[in-house]
């Protein structure tokens, strides 16, 4: 299975990074619809697309308004957007309000109520993570490989969600701040380096990919990668358009 990082920044894009958007091209799944969404049409391999939103903050949903260009680049028979019911309702009422975006994107909104079956014998489950306004994380399992995606939360190895991601082959987790900005992480409901690496270690993940990094941080080392690797050696910093096999 292949994962393509279409957007790895938080809050806003910069010259190197678009905002949160991850693509599994072989099964037509996108996790979050940030500004990186415009790239999806180049890589999709399916005639159907399922988009799973973690929450409704703008940097995670604005890419839904780019779906017209996605289907122009890669025609799709069906697009379903999944998420918590109240978050989908907020997107429809506000982002897609006629005065803001009068053209309805070519998709339907499907509230999450249970596990979702995925192509190739996979399944997707979800779990709450603490964040202002509420957010959810995702776990995707296929025979022989698995992926978890956790973003917009304050990482804590004692958090309830750690059990939900236990043993995944690949953990994609937000790491907005380095440790020296831990106070900002707590204030904004985001994560800093050491607790994220500790989560991966406690969850016994196979690999850790750090995303949703601060777009205003120096690109050379926005989160202190050596700090993370000292705790969890199999860690990489996610970068836009990187492809990861898992």
Textual characterization of the structure:
- A hairpin with a 5-residue loop joins strand 8 (122-129) and strand 9.
- Helices cover 21% and strands 28% of the residues.
- It contains seven helices and 14 strands.
- The strands form two sheets. Strands 6-5-4-3-2-1-14 form a seven-stranded mixed sheet. It has a seven-stranded mixed sheet with strand order 7-8-9-10-11-12-13, covered by helices on one side.
- The model has no long low-confidence stretch (mean pLDDT 97).
- It has helices spanning 58-61, 67-73, 85-95, 161-164, 182-188, 193-203, 225-231; strands at 2-7, 21-24, 29-31, 48-52, 78-83, 108-111, 116-118, 122-129, 135-142, 145-150, 170-174, 207-211, 235-237, 243-245.
- It has 246 residues and is of the alpha/beta class.
- It has one domain: 4-Layer Sandwich (Metallo-beta-lactamase, Chain A).
């Amino acid at each position: 299975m292949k994962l393509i990082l279409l957007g790895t920044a938080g809050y806003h894009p910069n010259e190197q990074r678009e905002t949160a958007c991850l693509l599994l091209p072989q099964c037509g799944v996108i996790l979050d619809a940030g500004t990186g969404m415009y790239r999806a049409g180049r890589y999709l391999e399916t005639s159907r697309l399922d988009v799973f939103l973690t929450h409704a903050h703008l940097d995670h949903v604005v890419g839904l308004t780019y779906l017209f260009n996605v289907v122009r680049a890669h025609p799709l028979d069906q697009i379903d957007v999944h998420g918590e019911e109240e978050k989908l309702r907020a997107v429809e009422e506000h982002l897609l309000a006629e005065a803001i975006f009068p053209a309805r994107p070519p998709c339907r909104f499907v509230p999450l109520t249970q596990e979702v079956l995925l192509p190739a014998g996979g399944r997707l489950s979800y779990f709450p993570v603490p964040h202002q306004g509420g957010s959810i994380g995702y776990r995707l399992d296929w025979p022989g490989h698995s992926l978890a995606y956790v973003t917009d939360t304050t990482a804590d190895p004692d958090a309830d969600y750690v059990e939900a991601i236990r043993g995944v082959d690949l953990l994609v987790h937000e790491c907005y701040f380095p440790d020296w900005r831990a106070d900002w992480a707590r204030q904004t409901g985001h994560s800093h380096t050491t607790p994220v690496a500790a989560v991966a270690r406690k969850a016994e993940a196979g690999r850790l990919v750090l995303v949703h990094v601060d777009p205003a941080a120096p690109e050379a080392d926005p989160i202190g990668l050596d700090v993370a690797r000292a705790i969890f050696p199999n860690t990489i910093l996610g970068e836009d358009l990187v492809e990861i096999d898992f």
